[in-house]
Amino acid sequence: MFSKKKYIQFIEQINIELPETPVEIYRGIYLLEQENDRLTDKHIKGSTVILLTDKKGNKLNRRLIQLPIEQGIETILTDLLIEPTSNKNQSSSKSQMILNDIEEPKIKNKKKTVDYQTVFFLFTTNLAKKIYMALIIVLFLFFTSFFVLNNHSSTSTDSQSYHELLKKKDYEKIIKQYPEKENELVEKLYSEKNSKELKELAEKSDSQIALFYWDFLNEHWQAVTTMKNVTPNETIQAMRGYAYLKQGKLDEAELINKEIDNQTLKDQIYQFKKQEAYKALHEKDIEKAEKINKEINDSELSEDIKVAKSMVNLLQKYEKDRSDSKLSEDERKEAENNYKMWSENLKQLGGNDNA
Question: Model's pTM, two decimal places?
Answer without folding.
Answer: 0.53
